Amino acid sequence: MRLRNVTGSREAIAESGYVVHEEGLKQCPGTWNRIFGNENPIHIEIGMGKGKFIHAMAKEHPGINYVGIEKYSSVLIRAVQKMEKEELPNLKFIRMEAEEITEVFGPGEVQRIYLNFSDPWPKDRHAKRRLPSRQFLARYEKILAKDGRIEFKTDNRELFDFALEELEPAGWEAVEVTYDLHADARLMEGNVMTEYEEKFSAMGNPICKYIIVKREDKAEDTSKG
Ligand code: SAH
Q1: At what angle are helices 157-170 and 134-143 packed, to 10 degrees?
Q2: How confident is the model at residue 224 (pLDDT cuts 50, 70, 90)?
């Protein structure tokens, strides 16, 4: 994502009612249904960029609550501006670093996590910063419902292969894998293109996608204490 400083974006975000702000975040775990005012499932996108995907998803699925997470104000401001043009009651944003995700959502509170075109962090020593790394999978496991899932799309084959290799050691399994999403009619059903997906598929890059769930035999038993 291009890091242009958008003048006043920090201030505009601080004033926006679409963004759950830092002061409020500590109270969030376990209260998202109250924030949205209903009992609908919660789906989140981590690293949402300018919010094209999550805004379209929220519009198409009014019975699901969406939370978009982005670390840069200068990018998040674009998602806020989209909401100003077309307000949706089932979409909220947080400006934060994904590493802190377990401080914002309670155990099992999230039904689905979307990772779209996550930063590749190509150097080996930065592997743990990649959003589909085992370190992040362990964080996601804490906030995902037992029957929850993660959907990941990227055109970066190295990052995708890495993400697949992380599944076994982290105790997850893929229920869907494709190396060319746009050629797969079944997986394309209901597909909403992200900003990056539009850009990279227009350049001819195939889009990889997986859907993963926690392996039954590895799922932590949270029913007791
Ligand atoms: N999902 C969008 C944007 C992809 S670019 C799309 O598919 O079009 C990746 C985005 O993730 C960038 O906006 C970047 O700022 C954000 N991001 C990367 N690492 C992050 C992290 N650790 N926490 C929060 N956001 C992150």
Answers
A1: 60
A2: very low
